[in-house]
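INFO batch 0412 | record 1 of 1 | parsing
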Amino acid sequence: MFGNMPTPFLLLLLLHLLALASTSGGQNYSNITRGTVLTAGGSSDSWPSPSGDFAFGFFPADSNRSRFLLAVWFAATSPQSVVWSANRNALLASGATVRLTADGRLSLRSENGSETWTPGAINAVAASVLDTGNLVLADATDVLWQSFDHPTDTLLPGQVLPADGSLRSQLTDADFSEGRFSLVAQADGNLVLYPLALPTGNQYVAYWSTGTSVSGNQLVYNASGSIYYNATANGTIVTINANSEYSPANFYQRARLDPDGVFRLYVYPKNNSGGGGSLRSTWNVMARIPDDICRTLVVENVGSGVCGYNSYCSSDNGQSQIHCMCPPQYTFIDQDYKYKGCKQNFTQNCDLYDPSSFTLIPADNLDWPYYDYEHYTNVDPDQCGDLCLEDCFCALAIYSVAESGCFKKKLPLTHGRTGSYVNRRALIKVPKYNNSVSAPFERVLERQRPMSVVGRLLLGSSGFLNLILIGSLIAVLVCNQRNTTHSVWKLRSLEELNLRTFSYKELEQATKEFKEELGRGAFGVVYKGELPSSSGSAKPVAVKRLDRLRKMIDDDGDKEFTNEVRSIGKTYHKNLVRLIGYCHEESQRLLVYEYMSRGSLQEFLFGGERPPWEQRASIAIGIARGLMYLHEECSAPIIHCDIKPQNVLLDDNLTARISDFGLAKLLRTDQTRTNTGIRGTRGYVAPEWFKSMAITKKVDVYSFGVMLLEIVTCRKNLEMEKEEVEEAILVYWAYDCYRVGRLALLLRDEDNIEDRQRAERFATVALWCIQEDPALRPSISAVVQMLDGVIPVAAPPDPSTAVSSRQ
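INFO prediction complete | emitting tokens
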């Protein structure tokens, strides 16, 4: 650590910057001289390092810029990443200040003026954030204090974690307060990862360690990017990462104890580094400890494990990200703090327990390995399930083929994990008549037309049931009344949504009189345009001219356009194309979107060379997550109605961005249907459009399933040049391949897919999505979980009996 090393270079650098500050006012440098003040939320709230790679000051801790962290962060990366902070457990509001006082103290004060943090009375002449990311306070001869001596959750090249030093993770990605894991360089020479109990922070049993026992060991992150644990007494070195390819000269680097308990080494290509290779311009994981925390953090005595109680952990087959999931018919207690665990969405009470009211949902490769309260041997899976169903205490049973064993579990469940390495089957007890079970967990039931079910209920209902139905009707009416009130509350001006209003002349000039056409579709034509920006350079945009709305200039048309643009403007997700502004001038209706440089998924998949599988898989998951936001997460759920490759655009990083969402309702009913009376595009249209059935979010799931098959196979859903009709229509061919157990035929040898099992899983998910019966299709959130591999994918219905639409 710099505090334990000679510092003449640092002092010379600091004194040089001080000299520059004295002649230039210091405005272009990171120096903080006595009397200098930074103000949270103000025009002067941070200072850069000399190169601009780092910044020190008030980092906004939320999207509203209402709470701030006094921190050092990477300023030249996207996203920016905090590497040190002073007030992680007590965020401050706008108006808070940090000042280097007249007596040389760095003083952090809240908006009301009370001091909340200071490194002490050290009589510093100046402070500066160096290009190493180190915040230093110095006098004329020595460094008096530095952030490298007081790490939070991150180490940087050139930094050392000494004996008795530690890192503490933050609580979640969005909550900077101290979290549930620590990395400790113990005095006895062992480097150890501990889970912690909140809020006290006491240590549970370690889940990883170097196993060394030589006092004086230090965790060294040297200037060349290598990380090793150095036993200074005998020269033994435990290497965590021997960097050879990703030099700090060409890559930003950081090693961080993440909120999920994994210590990861990240690299980020610098601009024009020439050494980025295949790495994207984002934080890429190069090494991690432990390799798979879902398998490693299984501590028997106490604690919930990586995820919370009653949840389970999936690690994407050991990849960089972990997921915490709830069993079917359980939900997170707090979606923002998943470590708090899951709760049942039903009641299981021994006083009124009826085994016939419950059923079991089997899930392979899923286990909660500890705290069995009963164990049976020489039983089969059916007997194991019956033993749990008959027991009012049993929340689930675990069956092990290898042990022919059956293990009963009570709540709370701990240390849950799923993966191919888990050779056990979970039998999860849920109410038999709860319809919230997602399709992948259900047995495929005999299809029934919705009206038939309703008719039987009405004809065979008792007086009591009729009362329930009447009560439900009243509840719906009350809900509608609330929605009406909510709609009135939402009538605000478009300006409140930070959407820019353009004149028609502005957009005519920006597009050079609508010269360069990017594409056209059901709603109109899209043109490329350029808008001036504050930096002086032109900002490319996509301008959609809604020609089919130009006749809608009556009051109703104006109101409908305003309402729908408001709805679109309130949606924001990394997998959606962002609406920048609009033009609503006389008969002109135009929307202005951010420009997507890599074009459409249609061009990417079918425009030439076959794209790599990993890129296609990442795009598929991105589309699913964008749809999940539209269906389940935005304030007013949106059904797209025209999901297809032409409506998925790609940005510079090949991130999938869904376009044209929310536009389906801009056209009146008689204008939105094609000659066949159907919205959408041939080949992607769900079967219910052809029938007298309600249109729900499941139409998007169907279209996504067709597109997912296109992504897996890299062929269009309709190829009429094929000799066999079955091969000409992709969904039929995929079904046939599945029926004969040859899903691998959907892949090509030139794909060079290492994980062909994952590609076949994607194809199986697609077969679930394109089920003819909407009730059998999973929700889009279940699709995301299956694609991510966090829940198992059950076998879809037999194609020979499921596909009646061929007739």
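INFO post-check: The domain at 2-149 is CATH 2.90.10.10 (Agglutinin, subunit A).
INFO record closed
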